[in-house]
Specification:
7-stranded parallel barrel; ATP-binding; LamB/YcsF/PxpA-like; 8 helices; hydrolase; alpha/beta; EC 3.5.2.9
Length: 242
């Protein structure tokens, strides 16, 4: 039987602000990527989200981002290798401590937003991220954009790598995600999302925004909890894939 992992970025509320539909999304996914306080989240939210994920029996991953709360970690920032390494170490270590305190085990690491997209194309940045993950725990799985510099760096570092694809995002001809600053970067039509996911899983390919068909490796599928249709899409995809 073919197996596929469904993951979702969660724990992105902080202080008085509630973002996403975490508890509902947890009913339909296999893995969660929990914000670590830099682009979103805070210690209390991190702990609550870990507790919820453990109660649902989900695999827990760290979702470290750039230190840009106002921009939700979606604005690029120049980082040297030491800064990138320390950034990952600091955030993953914080979530790992909470997971351990709650009796769980950290499963994977997935960079967030601009850091994720920068690493997809920047070999040096990806190597710093992969080194940090390996130095924390070489059994951690590194999530990266399918066929990207980040997955290559993970392989070179001796890590287990999960090539990630996106259910509700459109793609460019080089395999990168369409920037959110451009029109039609996010898919909202459930039929189109389902069609894209099934094609990625069954044929290992995706149709780009320009209509080109490119190859893609789908180990794990990302769903976004802050998508207004996130829960209904997750429910529909879980049923379809099952």
């Amino acid at each position: 039987m073919m197996k596929i992992d469904l993951n979702c970025d969660l724990g992105e509320s902080f202080g008085a602000y509630t973002i996403g539909q975490d508890e509902e999304m947890m009913k339909y996914v296999d893995s969660v990527n929990i914000a670590c306080g830099f682009h979103a989240g805070d210690p209390v939210v991190m702990m609550k989200t870990v507790e919820q994920a453990l109660s649902h029996g989900l695999k827990i991953g760290a979702h470290p981002g750039l230190p840009d709360l106002q921009g939700f970690g979606r604005r690029s920032m120049a980082l040297n290798p030491q800064e990138a390494y320390s950034l990952i170490l600091y955030q993953v270590g914080a979530l790992q401590a909470i997971v351990k305190a709650k009796g769980g085990t950290l499963s994977h690491v997935k960079p967030h937003g601009a850091l994720y997209n920068m690493a997809a194309k920047d070999a040096e940045l990806s190597q710093s991220i992969a080194k940090a993950v390996r130095d924390i725990d070489d059994s951690l799985i590194l999530f990266g954009l399918s066929g990207s510099e980040l997955t290559s760096a993970g392989n070179e570092a001796g890590l287990t790598v999960a090539h990630e694809v996106f259910a509700d995002r459109t793609y460019q001809s080089d395999g990168s995600l369409t920037p959110r600053s451009l029109p039609n970067s996010v898919l909202h039509d459930a039929d189109k999302v389902e069609e894209q996911v099934m094609r990625m899983v069954k044929r290992q390919e995706v149709v780009t925004a320009s209509g080109e068909v490119i190859s893609i490796q789908a180990d794990t599928i990302c769903l976004h909890g802050d998508n207004i249709e996130g829960v209904s899409l997750a429910r529909r995809l879980k049923e379809k894939l099952s």
